[in-house]
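Tokens in:
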């Protein structure tokens, strides 16, 4: 089924808005288990009430919309209300922040591929997308996970995840939702910068080949990939400039110019390092980049605020100040004006 002109216009307009004005995305779509693990590390009770209070603290922060164009919600949050009765979706829209939703069902072991994962959630996705659109959500997100290790990733794993991403994207566009396409090469491991480059290039080539085969309109998507970085356990850690150069070179070889924007995930980087690397990329000659270089950070924006909040009402304002600080840092990184905080 070909997209009609109205949907084409809406998809393109929303995609451009998500990466406009040097803003980026706030990923607050942690699953129950992921959110509970982060709470447990800080001694915060792992309850529905605490997850609601935490996410309300994020959404109600003053100035959030200065650097955030869209927020990715978890299904639980999309159905909840703030204390004043306003839904999270309405609260975000009221700030001029576009509300979106995580729609994948997480990863499971890929059959016959030891150490590799596949993302589930395509079953009944069309019906769920119809419901989300009716709720006021404008975009969606699906994450495919690739691990670098001994003899992996395999071609089978890469192709399976790319195919799932493309099918998800096609379903989103059919319903009028902008798909955030997230192929993530994990930072775990001892691999070097060159190996991450090699795998990222292979994955992106495969993903865009599958998007083409499924008829996905590239002007109506946002790519949410990893930066090209060495593994966390690699003894040689690349400099900020080396990461920026390797990432841009890789993406210029793989990402079509029709894509409106690349919103990088943080993937376990520290808040400061993620901002510094994004800043370095945006300092490079803009004429070489056909797409906006943005961010879709979760922990790299939230973690300082989470640690300050620590489940206590009396810490909300200080936590929101820390959140706003990270938003402003990434707003600066979008324009190449971020100053490394350790050198201030």
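Residues out:
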């Amino acid at each position: 089924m070909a997209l009609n002109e109205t949907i084409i216009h809406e998809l393109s307009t929303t995609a451009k808005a998500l990466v406009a004005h040097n803003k980026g995305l706030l990923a607050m779509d942690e699953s129950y288990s992921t959110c509970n693990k982060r709470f447990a590390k800080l001694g915060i009770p792992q309850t529905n009430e605490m997850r609601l209070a935490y996410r309300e603290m994020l959404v109600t922060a003053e100035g959030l919309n200065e650097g955030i164009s869209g927020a990715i919600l978890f299904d639980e949050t999309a159905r909840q209300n703030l204390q004043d009765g306003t839904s999270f979706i309405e609260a975000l829209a009221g700030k001029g922040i576009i509300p979106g939703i995580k729609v994948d069902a997480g990863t499971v072991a890929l059959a016959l591929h030891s150490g590799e994962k596949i993302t589930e959630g395509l079953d009944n996705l069309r019906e769920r997308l119809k419901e989300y659109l009716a709720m006021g959500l404008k975009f969606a997100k699906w994450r495919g996970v690739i691990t670098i290790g001994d003899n992996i990733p395999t071609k089978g794993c890469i192709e399976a995840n790319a195919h799932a991403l493309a099918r998800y994207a096609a379903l989103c566009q059919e319903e009028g939702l902008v798909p955030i396409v997230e192929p993530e090469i994990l930072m775990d491991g001892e691999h070097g910068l060159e190996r991450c480059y090699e795998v990222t290039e292979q994955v992106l080539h495969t993903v865009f080949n599958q998007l083409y085969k499924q008829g996905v309109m590239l002007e109506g998507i946002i790519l949410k990939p990893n930066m090209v970085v060495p593994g966390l356990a690699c003894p040689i850690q690349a400099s900020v400039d080396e990461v920026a150069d390797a990432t841009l070179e890789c993406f210029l070889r793989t990402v079509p110019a029709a894509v409106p924007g690349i919103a990088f995930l943080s993937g376990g980087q520290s808040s400061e390092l993620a901002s510094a690397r994004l800043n370095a990329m945006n300092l490079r000659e803009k004429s070489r980049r056909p797409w906006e270089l943005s961010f879709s950070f979760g922990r790299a924006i939230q973690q300082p605020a989470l640690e300050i909040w620590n489940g206590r009402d009396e810490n909300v304002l200080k936590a929101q100040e820390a959140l706003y600080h990270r938003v402003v840092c990434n707003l600066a990184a979008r324009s190449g004006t971020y100053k490394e905080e350790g050198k201030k």
